[in-house]
Amino acid sequence: MKQKTKNKLAQIFGPILIKFLIGSLRIKRINKQNIFDAKNEFGSVIYAFWHNRLLTLSYAHRFENIRILVSKHQDGEYISRAAAGLGYTSVRGSTKKGGMRAMVELVRASKKYDIGITPDGPRGPKEQIQDGILYLAYKTGKPIIPASCDSKKKWVLNSWDNFIIPKPFSETKIIYGQPILVSNKDEIISKKGLLQKKLINLGKKIEY
Questions:
Q1: What pLDDT, on the 0 to 100 scale, is given for residue 72?
Q2: DSSP strand pairing (144-151 vs 171-176)
Q3: For the chain, N or C: smaller number of CB within 10 Å?
Q4: How many structural domains does the chain have?
Q5: Range of the domain at 111
Q6: CATH of the domain at 7
Q7: Reduced 3-state DSSP string for the chain
Q8: pLDDT at res. 20
């Protein structure tokens, strides 16, 4: 099958599969007021969540005027195509390839759009924050909203990030942390540790 055909299939059927699977979940959102308060003050926000939570959160925030950072690898192309069907626009790049150009695009986009980033993506290490998202928060002045989710019943893939696929009709919880601001460049290291801790703790707070 030609690559162009694969990309087209991902664009068409990716959103359908996501809507069929994730749309069946019984989702409860916790602390969503943190988003409302931050957006009222700053206009837009930067969502941070682990790569393995991508599936549920991408559906939950569909058509919400969000731009996402997606790698330039081929698997990133599939994600970008599928995400387009859920109302997302993609900025292509990562900390290793196309990073500076992507950062410039994200800074510009943050004036009108929310930004979604998996700070341990696109290839890990798992649940380890990379500096890019903190630098973006510093350059834009926008708050980072940590987010996590989990499902009572799920499949966990044997991938680098242990990607989570909720089982149909499963009870699912999404939780949002308090915003994190990076006021100056000297705060990047300390706020990186804070974001790391918050994302890990958010996942632990979800109980069934």
A1: 72
A2: antiparallel
A3: N
A4: 1
A5: 3-205
A6: 3.40.1130.10
A7: CCHHHHHHHHHHHHHHHHHHHHCCCEEEEECCHHHHHHHHHHCCCEEECCHHHHHHHHHHCCCCCEEEEECCCHHHHHHHHHHHCCCCEEEECCCCCCHHHHHHHHHHHCCCCEEEECCCCCCCCCCCCCCHHHHHHHHHCCCEEEEEEEECCEEECCCCCCCEEECCCCEEEEEECCCECCCCHHHHHHHHHHHHHHHHHHHHHCCC
A8: 78
Q: What is the pLDDT of residue 200?
A: 96
User: Could you tell me the two tokens for 36?
Assistant: 């409302």
Q: How confident is the model at residue 153, as a pLDDT?
A: 96
What is the pTM for the complete model shown? 0.90
Per-residue pLDDT tens over the stretch 131-185: 999 999 999 999 999 999 999 999 999 999 999 999 999 999 999 999 999 999 9
